[in-house]
Amino acid sequence: MTPTRRLPLTLALATVAALAIAAPVSAQEDKVLARVNGQPITQKDLDVAAEDLGERLPAMPDAQKRDYLLTFVIDLKLGAQAAEAAKLTESPDFARRLAYFREKVLLDDYLGREVKKAVTAEAARKVYDDTVKDLKPEQEVRARHILVEGEEEAKKVAARVKGGEDFAKVAAEISKDPGSGKEGGDLGYFTKDRMVPEFAEAAFALEPGKISDPVKSQFGWHVIKVEDKRAKPLPAFDEVKAQIDQYLERKAQQDLILALREKGKIERLDQPAQAPAGGATLAPKP
Question: Distance of CA 73 to CAs 19, 210, 219, Å?
């Protein structure tokens, strides 16, 4: 579970009403935008609706989005009032679900507050530094190739480019590779595992500026020219910070749940399912 998730809006509003939870807000935030049978709707109500809808909220200009949300909350209140009039709130099932979602909101908010303490710029930088210091440089090759169907044609192509013809021009003229052909056969930089084995072995065996003999792969026959070799650059911190933050968030959530389990007095009265291989116990996944 993530700290941004909330309970379904109908139950969220019912929970707030039932518990009389109301945080102080500014006059602007608490401005009444509409009334439904006397019940006010404020900007804060629209904010809750927007959070609940999330990605389901259609993309539209802000003014239209505000109207959409206001209509949504109006319809919600009308439906909720009708449900109360039908005495649905008096059923045990409703009370049970209300209690469940109250606890879920409390957990989400608790995790959200505690996770903020773990997801810091300093923590992210430490994860990055600890990771990159253990990474071994990986070699990359930048190469061009010309792809043809048969071996004899490939031999003729190899003779042309080894004889001095411009490799990129010949590739643009006859290569059957729909991706790189128009780019003069340029494949950019790649690591060995990115190419089929026959092609990779030939390319990484060449020195920059050298041209291979014809190489057969499942795609046809290749003539390869290596332009450059280098150690693959490590990603900059800013490029991976978002991923590191996600990792820190998931780890903090899991650590918190496991700590709560460790401290709590839990009595399982049923027969627990068999633990996963290795006996590991994992917190709920986000």
Answer: 20, 69, 58
